[in-house]
Amino acid sequence: MWIDGTATTLLEKIHQQVLSAELVEEYLAWIAQTEPIVQAWEYLDPDHVRHQAKQIDNQYAIDRIKRPLQGIPIAIKDIFATTDMPTSWGTPIQAGKWFNVDATVVSRLRQAGAILFGKTVTTEYATAKAGKTKNPHQPQHSPGGSSSGSAAAVAAGMVPLAIGSQTMGSVIRPAAYCGVIGFKPSFGLIPRTGAMSASRELDHVGCFARSIADIDLLCSVLAGPDECDPDCIDRWNTTQFTQPTDSDRPNKFISIRTPFWNQIEPEYQGRFMQCISQLQAEGLSVEAIELPAAFEQFQHHATVLMATGLAFHHGADYDRYSDQFSPKLAQLIEQGRSFSALDYAAARQAAIDYNAFLTHLLTDDTAILTPATTGTAPFGLENTGSPLFCALWTFCGLPAISLPIGKASNGLPLAIQMVSRRMGDRQLLHQAKRAMQVLNQHWGTIEIASILP
Amino acid sequence: MWIDGTATTLLEKIHQQVLSAELVEEYLAWIAQTEPIVQAWEYLDPDHVRHQAKQIDNQYAIDRIKRPLQGIPIAIKDIFATTDMPTSWGTPIQAGKWFNVDATVVSRLRQAGAILFGKTVTTEYATAKAGKTKNPHQPQHSPGGSSSGSAAAVAAGMVPLAIGSQTMGSVIRPAAYCGVIGFKPSFGLIPRTGAMSASRELDHVGCFARSIADIDLLCSVLAGPDECDPDCIDRWNTTQFTQPTDSDRPNKFISIRTPFWNQIEPEYQGRFMQCISQLQAEGLSVEAIELPAAFEQFQHHATVLMATGLAFHHGADYDRYSDQFSPKLAQLIEQGRSFSALDYAAARQAAIDYNAFLTHLLTDDTAILTPATTGTAPFGLENTGSPLFCALWTFCGLPAISLPIGKASNGLPLAIQMVSRRMGDRQLLHQAKRAMQVLNQHWGTIEIASILP
Fold first, then answer.
1. Mean pLDDT, to the nearest integer, of B432-446?
2. What is the pLDDT of residue A238?
């Protein structure tokens, strides 16, 4: 029963009378049942979870301070440094590292009273070879990557909240495949200090939940300036998420099918267009537009930034342990080493140019509706899917959210992606909430995957 | 008499009774006398100046709104786009361009009621070959570059205020050579939209004045977020400069002689050390430290960013008109084309690493005291001097100010540089004011150069 709850509903109970020590037992029991199938965790020590819960209960008994995530179970993608759990970055080369400083987001979660259940499976260096995690809806299918375990853990009800990261499509895509909400805020809103780096320009912290209120709650804890992340200085007004929403603002949408529309599974194409019609039928304004041709270069530019970043940050590992690199990652590193400084400068400029166009398009809090993926989760675990529909928004640093829109005929979740102007995160969540009210009527609310046989 | 005034003192008069139409005549007359010697201007049309003054007077007669720079003459480095004056970037290749949108800073100056006197001489693409401008203190010497005309115009009393730009040392150095105050704020505080780009990571807008109050006044107009400069989004609290200063804060200083101390002229070495002693004698705390060895790589990293930026932004000009490029600039462009994306990523990372060290050093609003130049302005106009003592702070994006400390035995100005923590601009101005109170007792206040024979 508790497992069904969102963080927001759990928090009410915890702040009233329920002890988190009791709550975590429920979750641990459920994880014990489901983990053999889902394989979401890279590291989870039940005793350490119990220890945290006891500490939080004791603290609350003394100070009666209602912390914003008090007693709430959360999963941490295994690229964030933790002082009390090992960190492995999805590679045997770095497996089992112990950091002596928490990642900034980890530290903020602890201060907010969250219970860090464990570290979730990531693909190799959050980039390439898939981990062991299975899609909770159909274990023969991929959960998506790279935040595979975080998305699957939330979808399976093992935790109400999880944090992940997105360099191309690593939050939006697994969220879509697993049928949960995935949110990648504006570039610079959540500090990356202590997270494994793939690309300074593209790396974003993101989060997973089963309600927009939970996303809101989690972001209000995670966001805020950090002197150690130079791209996160002064960017953030921490009251952004917690201010009352301005419900008088119009809900204006733009649908963008992108130049890759024909790479989408026909059933998903149909569902996407149905969603547009459903929103319009409720009186919401949805205008279709096409992106200028210049946008077609974004894949090249994003690859320059990502491959160079990987070569820069992980080239030393590659030189020493290339036999333990997947061919895909090895190729990216070689590619990163081949790019020129001018390629790099051009990529950074392209993000400015794209944003100049998008800023005009997204005034007045208009939100983009666009596909999240090419379709449902791929069969087999090797292929974690394509980031084709996510990478442009990551490249531009815009806030993006993946919203479930029911299942396809194969029983796997489908999702629609919403994108907003830079720093328009709060309004995006507001718009997403409005859209979900409409779409849920047709496609149902988010439910925990039926994992157990 | 008016020519002696600072913007702050002039503003009082203008807001009381003086018409800017009268004021500009005084300035135009003075410019007519001094410009044949100083050669600060690339473009100056007296009638256009009079026209602006008339408009501002008329507007004030109607609305009685006291604008923050109402009627104040200002010079604009000729790399900022202006719709009513040509822009040439210091090169015949781009000479006489007319833009149809003002640079953001130009637009803010107009809105603030400033009178844009004209465009001042810059070195070639704000980088290489010197322009025609002479040092107002001794016309056989360089005014420094690249903001040559802006610094010289303020030093000569042709205007109380000027804007320039700094990619390596192009504000601090000419300010030091010309005996005026030059201020380069924190990276991201003043938008660069509409300014010629040399390097996205290094380009800063800066300003020149003859009092710290004027620098404060000018920055309060120039600073503020700009959607079109992605490095300037949300960085700025516009009340920063205009808030009352917190005079209770301690004035703590650190002196850094840098690894290049032995490249400094002995007389300037002595003056620098005297200034330290004078501050200490007044009870101010000055502690000497040395930078870690890793900082010695900054020149390489800064060169990667600058040369790549120049190649990226101006490579097309170079390919078409290489015969009109100076050998120095041609070499920089070739060099920029030779760097790898990994060089670029490493340079960006170095700025993070250096800042991690400096952030700890500069807590509690400590300010660095460090040389501004290698000595007084070089003889001859070809050599605009070395940016050796400026480029590190530019590279790190820290606010830096050049403060005159009298003249050397050769009659040319000397200066000390103060640097503060990132975004500590306001406190830096506060500290600079305190230091100037002490140093002025020994070296005199800033006076207009005695140009006329």
1. 95
2. 45
**Interchain contact, B351 vs A230, CB within 8 Å:** yes
Same domain, B198 and B258: no
Q: Do B144 and B175 sit in the same domain of this protein?
A: yes
Domain annotation covers residue A374:
yes
Are residue A191 and residue A267 in the same domain, yes or no? no
User: Can you give the pLDDT at residue B185?
Assistant: 95
Please, what is the end-to-end C-alpha distance for chain A in angstroms?
Answer: 19
For the record, the structure tokens of A388 come out as 């084709």
Q: How buried is B369 (Cβ within 10 angstroms: 0-12 exposed, 13-18 middle, 19+ buried)?
A: buried
Residue A379 lies in a domain: yes
Q: What is the DSSP letter of B224?
A: S
Are A168 and A200 within one domain?
yes
Tell me whether residues B339 and A343 touch, CB distance under 8 A: no
> Which of A328-337, B162-171, B428-437 is predicted with the least confidence, judged by mean pLDDT?
B428-437
A68: helix, coil or strand?
coil
Q: What is the pLDDT of residues B290-323, one digit of tens each?
A: 999 889 899 999 999 999 999 999 999 999 999 9
Q: A344 CB near a chain B CB, below 8 Å?
A: yes
* Structure confidence at residue A288 (pLDDT): 96
| Nearest CA-CA distance, residue A61 and chain B, Å | 37
Segment B4-43, tens digit of pLDDT? 889 999 998 888 877 889 999 999 999 999 999 999 999 9
Task: State the catalytic residue, choosing from A20, A165, A170, A197.
Answer: A170
Say which of A308, A337, A352 has its CB closest to residue B230.
Answer: A352
Q: Which residues of B touch A343 (CB under 8 A)?
A: 341
CB contact under 8 A, A315 and B345: no
From A146, A197, A211, A386, active-site residue: A146
For A361-382, what is each residue's pLDDT tens digit? 998 779 999 999 999 999 999 9
Helix, strand, coil in percent for chain B, rounding step 5 = 45, 15, 40
Sign of CA dihedral A47, A50, A52, A58: negative
Paired residues of B75 in beta bridges? B118, B162
Q: Mean pLDDT of all residues in chain A?
A: 93
- The count of structural domains within chain A is 2
Say whether B340 and A342 touch across the interface (CB within 8 A). Answer: no
Question: Is the minimum CB–CB distance between A346 and chain B shorter than 8 Å?
Answer: yes
Q: Flag whether A304 is in a domain.
A: no
